[in-house]
Amino acid sequence: MTRHTSALLIAVLMSCSVLPGAEPPRELRLHAVYVTNQDRPPRADHQGRLHRIMTDVQAFYRDEMERNGYGPVSFPLDQDEKGRVRIHLVKLPWDFDPKTPFRTRRMTPEIAKVLKADGLDADRAYYIVFQNGYWLDGTTWRYDIPYTGSGDSRRGKTWAADHEWLDPRNFLAKSAETMDDRGQKLTRARFCTKMIGGVAHELGHGLGLPHNREEPDELRRLGDALMGAGNYTYRRELHSKRKGAFLTQAHAFALSLHPLFKHERAADLTVPACGLEDLRFEHVLGKLLVSGRVSPAKDVAGMVFYHDKLPTGVNKDYDAWPYHAPVDAEGRFVQAVDLPGAGEYALHIVAYFRNGMKRKWTFTHEITGEMKPGLAALRRDGLWGELIAAWDRKDTALVQQHATKVTAQWPERKEQVARFVALAKAWGGFPLPALVPEATKQISLSGTRWQAASVAWYIPSFDGILTPDASSYEPLQSTVKVHSHGLYAHAEASYTYDLGGKWQSFASQVGLQKGHAGSVVFVVIGDGKELARTSLLTLTDGEREIKADVTGVKQLELRTESGPDGRSNDWAIWFSPTLGR
Fold first, then answer.
1. Beta strand pairing status for 178-181 and 140-142?
2. Whose CA is closest to 531, among 543, 522, 541?
């Protein structure tokens, strides 16, 4: 038996064992879903192969978490009484047609039905979907399916493909037989490295990880970062003399906070309001030295930095170098960032919270041909970031203080600064609902202070839709009319208010912002109990009314949920919400 064979067998045996600690509840396990058309049976040995694939990926994550100092922890898999990965079989109610691509919008409702029948809520579940979408076009295998992943601490979805050759046993296949996979000739071993590597990579996205790349010394020692090109080198060391894939230290830190790795999910999964203060950017010993403080710090677990050459954004961040920096009790951090080469860069600074959620700030600069960072641009961005942080905290005095500094150095942003100042002054005059004099029988909820708020796109906003940089403040408008009062709540969103048990009724018109054809559900919750819920609403529904009896309710939560087609365009609005007594 070769060393590589032994390594694989050990990995598989370990992956079939029970992870340390008590077995987590089913909602805190990763669920496997198999999607096929009504006229297509699952591919051969799909149960056995998917079990081996998922336990292999589970073992990879566990080994990498341990190598990074977090112990042998990984995501738990939902397994049956015999220890096999439980497969949720979804048969799409239409026949397979190569000309009809698989699309999440059509598949997600069918998946939700099957999960619901097994007692699982698809909107709060973590699952991976294997799609039986490969088809043979002459001698070439093709597919037209979503191959992606997205998620955070609240939920996660991963989409991958299935094929008979997908099996970790094939990492050791000696056969020279090849297949034409969408124009690429691959042996069984190379096919599995690419496609099971794809499963591991997209699952990373499903767990909330962005792309990143390895540094030169890591490439020599460890291979390719899983969330970079590691999906093409996964387990490559088992069938070649080249390094495989690994998990970067920054991403291991992020996963250590994820509910699937902690085996517990926080009751509050909102993103705490916080900001960066005392930011300093210096050029020291050939590196960019970044220091500062995240405030308030009580919920912050640590910081992650990404130095990403422009352009940045979705699928443009494969070249981002990641770093992890701890924070002290006061939220202070310091990190030396490498200068990869001349060009324009985005420096993303991300605060990770103990509940696994995160908040990101971005600063741009140009590294010169002499390998010097653009300190002036970074420092100016830092001032702007402190203004936004003050607004996030709704600190009216601090907003005004930072506004003066920003206007002096950045006069072209005078209009944006004025918008922040005006909104901060308005907020300063808002009361808590619980403290409104009893003589007041009705109030606009959007004219009171919330306790906590989070939205999936842009930032929480009252009486308009504010972009994060205050470049615009769009009026609230349904397909019926414009509203002067309301709450912007792009799903998934949550607004929480302290009523103090002093109000009796809540009422609001609800719908989508004009021009955004999403699908959402509006929910009213009092002291943790659901009080009212709408049906699934789309743009064509215009406005609907939702009412709830809030007599005696101390904490009111307004929540919006995405429809089965995902969060795209889910610009939900609570139009003219009111409290009465």
1. parallel
2. 522
Closest CA to 144 of 106, 115, 109, 173: 106
pLDDT tens digits for 308-325?
A: 999 887 788 999 999 999
Q: Packing angle between helix 46-67 and helix 3-15, nearest 10 degrees? A: 100
Write out pLDDT tens, residues 102-116.
998 899 999 999 999
DSSP state of 85: B
Residue 427 Rama label (left phi>0; alpha psi -120 to 50; beta)? alpha
Share of the chain above pLDDT 70, in %: 96
* Nearest Cα to Cα of residue 577 among 524, 539, 531: 524
> How many CB atoms lie under 10 A from the CB of residue 212?
26
Give every CB contact of residue 445 below 8 A, 6+ residues apart in sequence.
433, 487, 497, 506, 508, 574, 577, 578, 579
Q: Are 444 and 485 in contact (CB under 8 A)?
A: yes
Q: Residue 454 pLDDT > 90, yes or no?
A: no
* Rounded distance between C-alpha atoms, residue 315 and residue 337, angstroms: 22
- Give the pLDDT score at 565: 73
Map tokens 């950017």 to a residue: 281
Q: Could you tell me the domains of the chain?
A: 3-262 (no CATH), 275-428 (2.60.40.10), 433-580 (2.60.120.1060)
In 59-108, the DSSP E strands lie at: 87-92
CA distances from 186 to 117, 180, 205 (A): 39, 7, 25
CA-based angle 214:171:32, to the nearest 5? Answer: 80
Q: For residue 227, with 0-12 CB atoms within 10 Å meaning exposed, 13-18 middle and 19 or more buried, which class applies?
A: buried
Give 466's contacts (C-beta < 8 A, 6+ positions apart).
419, 423, 458, 459, 472, 473, 488
| Contact of 215 with 338, CB cutoff 8 Å | yes
Phi/psi of residue 488, each to 5°? -80, 125
Q: What's the token pair of residue 368?
A: 């010169």
Q: Which long-range contacts (CB under 8 A, 24 or more apart) does 16-19 make?
A: 16/55, 16/83, 19/62, 19/72, 19/73, 19/74, 19/76
Rounded CA gap, 127 and 202, in Å?
12
Question: Which of 239, 189, 231, 186 has its CA nearest to residue 212?
Answer: 231
Between CA 484 and CA 481 the distance in angstroms is 10
3-state secondary structure of 4: helix
Gap between the Cα atoms of 147 and 91, Å rounded = 19
* Average pLDDT score over residue span 465-484: 94
- Are 252 and 237 in contact by the 8 Å Cβ rule? The answer is no
134-162: burial string, b at 16+ Cβ within 10 Å, e else: beeeeeebebebbbebbbbbbbbbbbbbb
**DSSP per-residue string spanning 365-411:** EEE-TTS---HHHHHHHHHHHHHHHHHHTT-HHHHHHHHHHHHHH-G
pLDDT at position 15 is 43
DSSP class of residue 162? -
| Amino acid residing at 382 | G
| Average pLDDT of every residue of the chain | 93
- In angstroms, rounded to a whole number, what is the distance separating the alpha carbons of residues 394 and 427? 7
